[in-house]
Amino acid sequence: MSSTMSFDNLAKVLAVLVAEQGSYTYVDKLGYVPSKDLAVFYLKEALRDLHSIQQKEKFENEKARELVGKIDYERVEKELEDIAKTDERKELREKTSLIAAKALALSAKLGGGSGE
After folding, report:
1. How far apart (Å, rounded) are the C-alpha atoms in residues 45 and 106?
2. Cα angle at 53 between 49 and 55, to 5 degrees?
3. Under a CB-based contact definition with an 8 Å cutoff, are residues 26 and 12 in contact?
4. Which tens digit of pLDDT belongs to each residue from 67-113?
5. How far apart, in whole angstroms, are the C-alpha atoms of residue 19 and residue 62?
6. Residues 40 and 84 sit within 8 Å (Cβ to Cβ)
7. Can you tell me the distance from the alpha carbon of 39 to that of 59, in angstroms, rounded to the nearest whole number?
8. SS in 3 state form for 59-114?
9. Distance (Å, whole) CA 18 – CA 13
10. Which pLDDT tens digit goes with each residue over 37-70?
């Protein structure tokens, strides 16, 4: 796994979605994704949903709103590119599992999720 890539920003994206939507859907999808193309697709969907939430006038979870302000979208783009360049399935699994685990840890701090 790339030692310079932390995937913190993608984890923040997913954590905000867990906190705001009360659903682990994207974390679960990413944790079991079989290919890099599908991983990028799921992350694109997550980013689209995050953008939609950002358009709302009020976040339901104030901590999630604060975390959105800490997302570095240039880093998000680099993290996505790193995943898209991953050729080995084992390495992809390591990266997506790391993102999912970090997202769960962050969402716990935000008080999100419904226990699905």
Report:
1. 20
2. 120
3. no
4. 999 999 999 999 999 999 999 999 999 999 999 999 999 999 998 65
5. 10
6. yes
7. 27
8. CCCHHHHHHHCCCCHHHHHHHHHHHHCCCCHHHHHHHHHHHHHHHHHHHHHHCCCC
9. 9
10. 999 999 999 999 999 998 876 788 999 999 999 9
Tokens 């079991």, residue?
Answer: 32
Q: Coil, strand or helix: which one is 115?
A: coil
Phi then psi for 47, rounded to 5 degrees?
A: -65, -40
* Confidence at 28, pLDDT banded by 50, 70, 90: very high
**Angle of helix 73-84 relative to helix 36-54, nearest 10 degrees?**
160
The answer to whether the Cα torsion of 23, 14, 40, 56 is positive or negative is: positive
